[in-house]
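Review form for a predicted model. The reviewer records the input and the model, then writes brief findings.
Reviewer: anonymous (R2)
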Amino acid sequence: MKLTEIKKEIAPQWAEKGYQLPGFDIEAVRARTYEQPTWVHFGAGNLFRAFPAAVLQQVLDTGKYDRGVIVVEGFDFEIIDKVYTPYENLSLLVCLQSDGNIRKKVIASVAESLKADMRFTRDWARLSDIFRNPGLQMLSFTITEKGYKVAPADLERGLEPAMIMGKVTLLLYERFLAGALPLTLQSMDNCSHNGDRVREAVLAYASRWAEDGLVPGEFPAYVQDPAKVTYPWSMIDKITPRPDEKVQKMLAEDGFEDNSPILTEKRTYTAPFVNAEETEYLVIEDTYSNGRPPLELGGVLYVDRETVDKVERMKVCTCLNPLHTAMSVYGCLLGYDLISEEMKDEDIRGLITKLGYMEAMPVVVDPGVLRPADFIDAVLTRRLPNPFMPDAPQRIATDTSQKLPIRFGETIKAYGERGLNMDDLVLLPLVLAGYGRYLKGIDDEGRIFEPSPDPLLEELRAIVAPLEVREGQQDFSCLRTLYSRRDVFGVDLYESGLGGRIEKMTAELYAGVGAVRRTLHRYVSAR
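Model under review:
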């Protein structure tokens, strides 16, 4: 069983083994897409194949749409050479369900795969032609938050940029020269107000090029004209870990031969298949200047900007991200290396359940399109316990200092703004106290561990350096320096009335071997 076989005579074992195949004419869709492209996507990684491309597959299967997506890679070109080209742009999505079952689906919605670099002259010529086509509606992205950065050195390269957003702006310039044609640039990356990131990056290049006399002054005006170019916000949520060995083994046992993992020189870990969780959300601001593919037929929710913001705040401030951080801190301290295993721990499960439902939920604004209670229920009952998801607390703990202001600081602020009783916050302070203990890099058994990478790690570890993990009296006054930092927690915790309580909890967590477990159990049980 090979991916490229499905375009020929299909062997019966595909159905016998439970593989869902495309319900549309692949070659016909590709031909129509080549002539009249509507959707280009930057970022050819695992998330794209597991979510946007799979959504389009559902749309094509309805028979109500007939265009595929053109995927473009602007950073790691080996992905195109090793994951797309050899398999004729086909891939396999393995959906890992919390009940232990899996669903397998061949994804054929990708019509073309291209490299965004002028060194690949044929690909760049094709991209230029696509962007001059009046029918192009959407350019979307899954390039991670760092993909939207603009480097001064790249601005100085003029019309030969090396970074992704510079290349995107250059392609927009082709569209401008073709008659200032309309287009929507749609980020699908997991970062706040992501459309603004795209807009700021594009404008930085367009403005600099205009200042340098490389493009007409009308070009910056074009990329800022909402009647021509729009940059909607979105909220995306789907966990897509690296290809898993257990999945590879299952596919091999089926007789599916395209199961070998691939590691590129740029350290991208991928494969002809992609494994992902069953739960997924994509909420998009419906602000398009030239129409759009009907992705609502595949489950995408189109709303206004305010609703996108509410959904994002629900996820980031309450129903998912704070729970992840709580699990990462205490998971590292208690020696766990899998999130699914942590969910078997009554104290950790109790911590995040009560933190979400009892302490954070009172300040959630219901966005209307997704019920907060349903969202958090899916997190606690299906997503986090999923044994197929090899996610680790050590990964989630990366850059924790950058996450705390949003994940916890916003809830604290909301309590103050609404006049709620700060004494009702018990487990949220316990998480922040756990962070003060985590920074020491000693687990609950007294073993040294390396905290995950973080831009402020060494600076914050220096603050707790005087503290020891031992029973008996010691001076915890250094904690005031830590817990008064607005840049880390989003608020001065002492001004919020929580600093003293968090200090006390932190002292309890430092009280010798086993103190983390004892303290965690005591507060969770009492709550």
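Findings: Residues 194-211 form the longest helix (18 residues).
Further findings: The CA atoms of residues 52 and 225 lie 27 Å apart.
Recommendation: see findings above.
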